[in-house]
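This section describes the prediction task in plain terms. A model, or a person checking by hand, is given the sequence of a single protein chain and must write out its three-dimensional structure as a string of tokens. No templates, partner chains or ligands are provided. The sample shown here is typical of the held-out split.
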Amino acid sequence: MKLSSLIRSLRQFRSVHRWIGLSLVLFMLITAVTGLLLGWKKNVEALQPSTQPGRSSDLATWVSFAHVMASANRAMDSLTIARSELEKFDVRADKGIVKVIYLNHWEVQVDGQTGKTLSVAKRHSDWIERVHDGSLISDGFKLFYTNYLGWGLLVLSLTGFWLWYGPRKVRQRKE
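The expected answer:
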């Protein structure tokens, strides 16, 4: 490659790198901040309540899901928290509990054997995860967001490498 074409390619790569970087900066900041929060979710009670221990991990001795749900609903009603629809049951057999998670991001931990409520707390990690992956807006946006970030970071990595390595090649050619 001639020196003039090498210098021209560096200018083009610098321009591509700049514009892709500018178009990605907000997405990268959001993803970085939410990623840091998600990395800490098991260590910070405000992000995700710690898992309480249940009595038994023997599923044969556990109460029914209907009993677990009734217990969770009573716990939510007693705190006068407007409960929403059930999002999921998170069964932690090894811990002896079932986490009942509602769409409004509240979690009730219920002992699998006794059916007693162990904990009621707000889960912030769920909505943070939805912001992190773009699904807070829609599944279509999530697909766009993750592809744009992924491809953008790949292009930034490649152009960044060339912007680091290219000037060394120019100096080498001039000598």
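For orientation: The helical segments are 3-39, 65-78, 125-133, 139-174.
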